[in-house]
């Protein structure tokens, strides 16, 4: 079986419509580092919705998703798992609730 090129891509989540682009990239087999701050500055509720939709999709196809600090998430396709420390189990879920406008840089 011939292997296609796998990319690691950095993408911004600027609006809810970007979720479909991200899903397509994951289905293609790419690894994504998604900056969620642009959408979080506009709407915390839309950010929560987007992350929930992405989490459900990624889990349904056998991929993985995790938070990288307050501003980014990493999403991997099936066959690529994200390493987590055992003591960091509370960080494995992506609690979109923690995205509050007052904690984002430049929103003061």
SSE order and pairing:
Layout: E1 8-12, H1 18-28, E2 31-35, H2 37-42, H3 44-61, E3 64-68, E4 72-76
Parallel strand pairs: 1-2
Antiparallel strand pairs: 2-4, 3-4
Briefly say what this structure is.
This protein has a single domain, classed as 2-Layer Sandwich (Translation Initiation Factor IF3).
Protein model, in words:
Helix content is 32%, strand content 19%. With 108 residues, it is of the alpha+beta class. The protein has a single domain, classed as SepF-like protein (Translation Initiation Factor IF3), CATH 3.30.110.150. The chain has a four-stranded mixed sheet with strand order 1-2-4-3. Strand 1, helix 1 (18-28) and strand 2 form a beta-alpha-beta unit. Helix 1 (18-28) runs parallel beside helix 3. It starts with 7 loop residues before the first strand and ends in a 32-residue tail after the last strand. Residues 95-108 have low confidence and may be disordered.
């Amino acid at each position: 079986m011939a292997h296609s090129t796998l990319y690691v891509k950095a993408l911004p989540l600027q609006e809810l419509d970007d979720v479909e682009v991200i899903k397509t990239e994951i289905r293609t087999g790419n690894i994504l580092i998604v900056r969620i701050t642009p959408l979080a500055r506009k709407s915390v509720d839309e950010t929560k919705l987007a992350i929930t939709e992405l989490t459900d999709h990624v889990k349904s196809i056998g991929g993985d998703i995790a938070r990288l600090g307050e501003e980014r998430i990493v999403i991997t396709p099936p066959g690529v798992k994200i390493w987590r420390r055992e003591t960091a189990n509370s960080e494995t879920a992506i609690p979109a609730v923690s995205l509050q406008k007052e904690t984002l840089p430049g929103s003061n």
